[in-house]
Each structure stands twice: as C-alpha cells, then as structure tokens.
Prior knowledge:
25% strand; globular; 21 strands; 29% helix; 8-stranded parallel barrel; alpha/beta; 12 helices; 410 residues; binds pyridoxal-5'-phosphate
Amino acid sequence: MELQDNVYTIQGLKVLDICEEFGTPLYLYDADKIISQINKLHKAFEGINVKLKYAAKSLTNINILKLMRKQGVGLDVVSIQEARIGIKAGFEPKDIMYTPNCVSFEEIQMAVELGVTINIDNISILEQFGHVYHNTVPCCIRLNPHIMAGGNTKISTGHIDSKFGISVLQMRHLLRVVETNNINVVGLHIHTGSDILDAEVFLRGAQIVFDAAREFKDLQFLDFGSGFKVPYRQDDPTTDLNQVGSGLKDAVQNFCKEYGRDLEIWFEPGKYLVSEAGYLLVKTNVIKTTPATVFAGVDSGMNHLIRPMMYEAYHDMFNLSNPGGTSRVYTVVGYICETDTLGSDRKLHELREGDIIAIKNAGAYGYSMSNNYNSRFRPAEVLVINGEAKLIRKRENLEDILRNQVEIDI
Ligand SMILES: Cc1ncc(COP(=O)(O)O)c(C=O)c1O
C-alpha cells in the first residue's frame, strides 16, 4: 500500500473507496505484491533447480491458488480438502504435494486416488502404505531433523518433541520398512518451522537431508519446507535469502554430483508469498478512555485474525482515514466477548469513531485461521489485480452460520 498525497492506494486505487464499496471488516490482497515475492524467491535461488510449492494453508482462496498456478508455482497442501481445492483451481495433481499429519490411512488412499504426491510423516502409515501399494505409488518421506527453530513454539515443527515427521534417529527402522515393502521413495522432506530468521538453520537442515538421502537410491527431489521470516515491524530483520541461496547452491551441486542425479529442490513458502500482500481493514466502532489507556474497539477481533492472541504475534497497523492526524497511543481491541487485543500501546494517527484501521501482514494465516466465534460473520475478501478490486469471497450472513445446524423438536 502506498501513501500518495495523504491518501492510501493499492495499484492506484484508493483503499478507502474499496472499503466503501465492499464494507468492513475486509481482507484485501495485492496480487502485484504476491508476484513480486515469487520473483524475489526465484532470484535468491538462481542457479539451483528450485520448484516452489505454495503452502495453501496460509491463504486458501481459490483465486489466490489460481494466481500461484499462473505464476508457475506448485502447491503444498495438508489436507484432502486443500488437495481438492487445488485440483479445482487447475493444478495438475503431480504439482501438488500432500503433507498431512495424523490423518487416517483412508485419507491417504483418497489422496493417492487424486494422483497427488504423497508425503508420509510416520512409520505406522508408511507400513500401511507399503502393504497396500508396494512400489506402485511413489512417495516422499517427511523427516524430523531435530532442529529447534521458529518464531514461537506453536510454529516450531522440527524439534524432538514435535509430532511432525519421522525422526532422523529412526532411519534404521524407516529403511527396514521401506526395503521389506519395496516402497518407492522419490523425495525427502523437512519443515522446521515458521518465522526462522537464521539462514544457517536452512543450511543445517539441508545437510541433514543430504545425509539421509544417501540411504535412498531413487530420489527425484528434496523438499526443504519453508519458514522464511517476513518483516512484521518496521525494520524487522528477515531471513537473508541470498545467504540461504548462495549457501545452498554449492551444497546442492556437490550433493547432486555425488548422488549422480540432478535432484529438484523444493520449497513451500506460505508467509513469504502472501503475508505482506494482505491487509485486514477494520472500522473503529468506539473510542473508550479508561483510567489506564485509550481503547479503540473495532468491528473485528480474534475471530478474524487470531495470530496476536494465539502466537502473541505483532501486527503493525495504521489509521487509513486520518494519515495527517496527531499521533496518540491506543490499545486496539476487537468486539469479541473475550480479551481479544489486536495491538497494545500502538502509536496511531488520531483515531475517531468510524475511522478505518489497516492491519498489516494479514495475508498469511489471517482469513484461513478465522472462525465464527460469537456467531460473527467472517469478512469478505477482495483481490486487487490488474488495477481492479475484485470480490473473491462474499461476506458471510446468518444463513451461513445456521446452514449446518439441524433444528429438532425441543
Ligand atoms: C509442511 C509445511 N510447509 C510449509 C509451510 C509454510 O510455512 P511458512 O508460512 O512459514 O512459509 C508450513 C507451515 O506451517 C508447513 O507446515
């Protein structure tokens, strides 16, 4: 979003006009920003045979998936439902990586039917997979590299206590299951966590995958997951992708030479591609002065953006309606019957009731983690693409809330 002559715009469109047209609360995404993030990643990994698989869970709207496909990006999905949405969005099943965790074997079988790449993350499922498919269906194996990394324990997935992946310490057991069932392992995968600042973590993870890869003869790709840190605050440090790229380039080349095959290197970015492209636009319903602070109560809350309450995540925000106003301190809270603070002690240009606040970094894990707590409607979603603001999801209504409730005689 840009500030021109005291007016915020996206691709030349006034954001306040978009709020007027579609109402608030509103999730607003900028397609140009998504495309520029894809290009930045490709640039950082120049010289490596990299394939990007967008982590659909971060923002699952089918139009965003279509945009990714148009840009030549594949898909990373974590449920059969996401896989089906991906296919509906036009992805070839072969371009979809399915990485479920703790799902039933029946769900894995459904994914095999769809033809997507199956990523298996526990030995029990691997055994069942081997009994049923032997070497007829290729698969990938998700390893747990035992690396503690990530911005918050809830989003750290590669450590010893994590439920994800098959421990690299279980390699002997894993190989026994693979060999006795003649399983066709074509890929190895790790995903250590989200919000990883330290480039070394990615390089260390890669070395662990290379070590494991020496045990498998028929690999076609190595998937290093994701976790690239994006800025949530002004001047926030971010993962040095050039360091990751240049560090990996030699390491991958050397390993491929030793392995005797040019393996594809996959990454599964979610946040990096969509976080900064999205804003949650909310209206200030009330200004409430207490002995302790000044609350700005908005027409949204943890039901629409759960990250601040769930991960103590910091989301920067600004007053769209009064960019020239005097700066004052506010605690911005939602309308949910629970303490749902979106931002404490924020310096914002003076807020008046009715002013629109833009909450940044709302593209990733914003709408996709929203819910109907307090029977509130989820917001509409709008994508600005080719200079036009397009509605890509309608705001919910009471019928949506009641749709699956069954009234019985009481
Ligand atoms: C398996 C897997 N891949 C990729 C991602 C995307 O991570 P990020 O949004 O940090 O890029 C996740 C997120 O949790 C994940 O679980």
